[in-house]
Amino acid sequence: MVNGYKMPKDFLWGGAVAAHQLEGGWQADGKGVSIADVMTAGRNGVPRQVTDGVKPGEIYPNHWGNDFYHRYPEDDQLFEEMGFKCFRTSIAWTRIFPNGDEDEPNEAGLKFYDDLFDNLLAHHIQPVITLSHFEIPYHLVKAYGGWSNRKMIDFFVHFAKTVFKRYRNKVKYWMTFNEINNQTAWKDPHPLLQNSGLQLGKDDNWQQAMYQAAHYELVASALTVQAGHAINPDFQIGCMVAMCPIYPLTAKPEDVMKAERAMQTRYWYGDVHCLGEYPKWLPKYLERKNIKLDITDDDLATLKAGTVDYVGFSYYMSFVTKAKADEAPAYEYTEPDDFVENPYVEKSDWGWQIDPTGLRYSMNWMQDRWHLPQFIVENGFGAYDKKQADGSVHDDYRISYFRDHIKAMEEAVALDGVDLIGYTPWGCIDLVSASTGEMAKRYGFIYVDADDNGKGSFDRSKKDSFYWYQKVIESDGADL
Ligand code: BGP
């Protein structure tokens, strides 16, 4: 029914990346050490680890990324050739404040983003900026315990105000914390703890620590939204939620209740960001778990006054859960313990369940719950690509993933009335994987000749999906 549907002319087609996964130049021009710089590569079943400083003999893939720091003029050119209207990246906090707690910013770091944004704009591409994408200054982790400390709010807001003022005429769309909700449901150790910089010991009450960190991040986000609007009333400042809808495995009422609790556990962050308040079930849950949080009345007023302008979200897959035998009446959801496989969908080589309908379902769910415009700021297919001698890559699997998801996105807009700002596929140019630290898990339309150990020419070449996406943008999404 929606075949040939055209998205509006001002729809923001583009691509997405994050500073630490592609820039490299980890010590360039006065940059400080971020938590991403002390994250090892995950190898042979061993997950990525945060080491106490940079250790000789370890592999730290974020030190080189795909060398975007030095090669962005060539990359921006390729993005323009694909027809990008926008490019989502993040600002590495440690380029601006190397330790995170300084008063004065590092001018060379600010200049790097000035040059990058100017170059993008010269190519008719508007930057879309995430303030915190899985990296905080490592000094803040060591000296303050990361987001376990209320002081982080001031450091973050100071960073945000600094870049808001500097780029007030270059950037309109901002996001505060990348995938903020990928914290509370996951057990330690998990690489996404990079966001919060928590370093938990085995005996720590990880839920206590994560809910507290989440609260401080949400307060920081709300203050940031208010500060941004004061600096430029035209700013659009969003949240960024990792959206993986969770289905019940069966129609058994206990499974349905479990899935509802799972959705609450993963998406209450969105309630705070968009509605300005904690959902009613959460204090009850914290009380049962004996979790006591430092939340002041001022904090609650801040959350109410700092709601976001739009919902930015990533969508890769859906999850499924089912009730355990003794589940009722508490129903508690933890990842990955409560995952079960969906018998109806295919999976990627990394076990990510492929579910385009889940994207449309999610967009409807968020629209009904949060009543805000949406921006799909990540979506994509990680795969092992094979480069041919002439540099080409025949990635029909990626094209088919995108075709199905863009179709579902267009159905949500055309048939369900979702107000959608844009679509920026993840890793539009190959970069380092956040979860595994591999280069081999590739998402790009543009191939980068580098391996997991940072060896290779780093030359760029166009995959088949490059030409396909070019055609999609050119036809406003009609020609899939
Ligand atoms: C999201 C992150 C990105 C990104 C992507 C793909 O969780 O926001 O940073 O990397 O997922 O994940 P991965 O790189 O682990 O395949």
TrEMBL record:
<dbReference type="InterPro" id="IPR001360">
    <property type="entry name" value="Glyco_hydro_1"/>
</dbReference>
<keyword id="KW-0326">Glycosidase</keyword>
<dbReference type="InterPro" id="IPR017853">
    <property type="entry name" value="GH"/>
</dbReference>
<dbReference type="GO" id="GO:0008706">
    <property type="term" value="F:6-phospho-beta-glucosidase activity"/>
</dbReference>
<comment type="similarity">
    <text>Belongs to the glycosyl hydrolase 1 family.</text>
</comment>
<protein>
    <submittedName>
        <fullName>6-phospho-beta-glucosidase</fullName>
        <ecNumber>3.2.1.86</ecNumber>
    </submittedName>
</protein>
<dbReference type="InterPro" id="IPR033132">
    <property type="entry name" value="GH_1_N_CS"/>
</dbReference>
<dbReference type="Pfam" id="PF00232">
    <property type="entry name" value="Glyco_hydro_1"/>
</dbReference>
<keyword id="KW-0378">Hydrolase</keyword>
